[in-house]
Design goal:
With about 290 residues, chain A is α+β, with helices and mostly antiparallel strands. Chain A is built from 10 helices and 8 strands. Classes of the chains: A alpha+beta (about 290), B mainly alpha (about 70).
Chain lengths: ~290, ~70
């Protein structure tokens, strides 16, 4: 057999073999990997490269080496799931770099990080002032994560004491002018529902690039033709405004009527409606 | 505008709200929102029926404005 055919055959077969092996080794992000894992990937890749170029005489030796460098990391992964001790040995432990707002110099030395590098990492986390940091830790992957002082943290709705309606992820139901049946059915809708929605908005499905349905069932569309202005879903805001109007009407009826029973009925309902509006507000307005 | 016709206008708004709210109660995926919507629906139905009663009384008292 000619050499070039040999190399072609072994390269093609190793290409697909490596595809499978790398999938087996897990789907962890290559950037957020512990250094040792990175090494095992590189060694496996180099062995595969050598084998595909026929640089070693006996292919069996290559497969033995390759299987060790692929199977051992997988085995270590399973072992470190089972045992914390093995996990710490394999992956290392996180190192606290800043505690109570003070830099731990000896830990910094242990991770061989200079002050400039620490500051650079903090800046990349949008922390320009050391005074804002309460706690920082270097993970076993080498990433540095920062916990800000409480008064420097971004405000959440919890801090403001606001109740927000729970939102689930929107589902994409139209992509490139095609209906996606699967996501439509998972929402409990069908094609007819979507057709009716599109008809009320007044666009044809061919003109829709992306269509998403949010958790409350409103449809948001992005069209190919950007010159067409389509109404964005504002029904919930309108609904809330209508309730407000009705509540005000009931109040004024209760003030105007001279019938005592009717006055009581009106004011009771106005009060009830006001309470309900308080409850509805997070669901309809935010 | 007579009192009865004002009440009828409010009644119409409330009925419209009821429809929209029922739609949302049906199509929302979140259990908690569903509960709130249904609670509001119930209260709205109560208000609507009371207002309808009131209109009947008013129209009986002042039959000359009936149908306005």
């Amino acid at each position: 057999m000619q050499t070039w055919i040999q190399i072609l055959l072994s390269s093609v077969s190793l290409f697909f073999l490596m595809l499978i092996l790398v999938r087996l080794m897990g789907k962890r992000n290559i950037v957020r990997m512990t250094p040792f894992r990175f090494v095992s990937y590189i060694v496996a890749a180099v062995i595969a490269a050598i084998m595909s170029l026929n640089l070693i005489g006996n292919l069996t030796f290559g497969f033995i080496a390759l299987s060790v460098w692929v199977l051992f990391p997988i085995a270590l992964d399973y072992l470190s799931i089972k045992s914390k001790w093995i996990h710490d040995i394999v992956n290392g432990k996180e190192t606290v770099l800043i505690k109570h707002g003070k830099i731990m110099e000896e830990n910094l030395l242990q991770t061989r990080l200079t002050a400039e590098e620490l500051l650079r990492e903090l800046r990349s986390k949008n922390t320009f002032s050391l005074a804002d940091v309460e706690f920082a830790v270097m993970e076993d992957t080498g990433d540095i994560n920062v916990f800000m002082k409480s008064h420097k943290k971004p405000v959440s709705s919890y801090d403001l004491g606001m109740k927000l309606a729970p939102l689930t992820e929107p589902q994409t139901v139209i992509l490139d002018g095609n209906m996606l049946n699967e996501s439509l059915f998972s929402l409990g809708f069908n094609r007819e529902w979507l057709e009716i929605q599109l008809e009320t908005i007044g666009v044809s499905i061919d003109n829709v690039f992306i269509g998403q349905v949010d958790s409350s069932g409103d449809l948001y569309l992005d069209l190919f033709d950007d010159s067409i202005q389509i109404p964005q879903p504002k029904v919930k805001e309108m609904l809330y405004a209508n309730f407000e109007k009705s509540q005000a009407d009931l109040m004024s009826f209760s003030l105007e009527t001279k019938n005592e029973a009717a006055r009581k009925m009106y004011s009771e309902h106005a009060e009830k409606l006001e309470q309900l509006m308080g409850k509805l507000k997070p669901y309809l307005l935010r | 505008m007579t009192v009865a016709s004002q009440i009828k206008k409010t009644l119409a708004t409330l009925k419209g709200n009821q429809g929209t709210l029922r739609l949302y109660a049906l199509q929302t995926r979140d259990k908690e929102s569903k509960l709130v919507y249904y609670e509001t629906l119930e209260a709205t139905a109560q208000i609507i029926s009371d207002l309808e009663e009131r209109i009947k009384v008013l129209e009986y008292q002042e039959p000359q404005y009936k149908g306005n």
